[in-house]
Please model this.
Amino acid sequence: MNLPNLVTVIRIVLIPVFIILLVYGPVVWALVAFSLAGVTDALDGYLARRLGEQTAMGRFLDPLADKLLLNSAFITMGALGQFPVWLVVIVISRDVAITVGSLLIYLVHHGTVMAPTILGKATTLSQLILVVNQLIVTSAGFAHPLEVPILAVTAALTVASGIHYIVRGIRFSGGSAAAQGAGNG
Model:
């Protein structure tokens, strides 16, 4: 296993630490664990590019680690009443649809992996910002004035990117050259 993939595995290992701290420990420590996991997200990609160690395993593990981290955060924070249930349902539904669609494309198209798009990356970033904001709000004990707008933007991006990926997957499976472009937003 190369260094970038090891960094990704560290992110996955931080997930139960984050959840335990979120549920039982001071929320500020959950914020630290989540932030460390976020740093590993940036670091693994940087290292893979810098060291020339981009691998199929890394292309699989990195988005999986992102989904596990964010879905764990949304489910746990939803169960604790920190996020509305409807938002948790939207986030999880989108990721299930994307995961199932990606798996089908991978199986049907002999190992083809759809690259993430700009809209998908923006959605992930907004979800990360929302989780961090909520952790800060919870640990500080007061509401942040941008809490509702951040939640609204995150919900809108999550729905839009979910629809975008579904349409893109359908077009790809139908043979559309436009949908096959790697990483085109």
Observations:
- The helical segments are 3-24, 27-51, 56-79, 85-108, 118-140, 147-173.
- The longest helix spans residues 147-173.
- The chain is about 80% helix and 0% strand.
- The chain has one domain: 3-173.
